[in-house]
Amino acid sequence: MVYMTGGLMRIKEMLPLLPPSEKKIAAYILEHPQDIISMTANELGKRSTTSGAAVIRLCKSLNLKGFHDLKIRVAGDLQKTTQQGFRDIEPHESAMSIIDKMTNNSIQTIHETAELLSIDELEKAVDILNKARRIHFIGVGASSIIAQDAEQKFLRINKTAYAFEDMHMAATLVANAEKEDVVVGISFSGETGEVANILQLARENGARTISLTKYGRWAVTEQADVNLYTSATKEPTFRSGATSSRLAQLQVIDILFMSVASLQYDETVMHLAATKDAVDFIKSDTRKHATNKESD
User: Which of 3, 158, 261, 281 has a CA 20 to 30 Å removed from the CA of 65?
Assistant: First the structure.
């Protein structure tokens, strides 16, 4: 059976950012997840010495439709198999142990990211990307790698896509963006100033904007029409969490790509076949020239 999940994960991710009354409710839910499933909003407000209105505000802060939505997700969380949690590597650790820990970390991040994705927001993003005249993927540092991966994927299905590491070049292109264009800002922290500024520039020019960040309210999400989230993976000593966050970003890009491709399935198959044939031709032509050169 498939359960709606992600209630407890959303609370854990947002806990440090919540106002005092909502934080008290969140802490109560984390301590008594089983109990709150049978409560009303007013009952939870009394138990947490706050109010029913504060419970509703918490649900809004968690980007949920209401308290009923939160209870369903918490109930789903309680049905899940217990996870091991993120584990860092130790000095002189064996290769087998590192394989096990990194695999566990990656799988958990992917599951958590799936729980944090809003279907409504995802469908909005897919619709915007499907109708876009041009798509600009913006990322700095490690996020620029994700932007380049997205560019490569969407180019293969005949979408006009760009990805720039140079923010001045990105700003130059976005300065001429129009309402049929889309700018996707990628920033794990959500606080990358350059990405937030380019999204703001895009909005001022009437272009649609999409953000991909860790869960929460950030400078980047404030400038986006649609917000997509990845799990705010832990950052252990050796930064295995940074590896997991990259996988989570790639996961969301893959979901967006596959969703857009599915909407234009026949065209996608045709375009993918054409790009494959083109690459195969380049490879075969290169091998042919190499063989001729050896013969000479």
Answer: 261
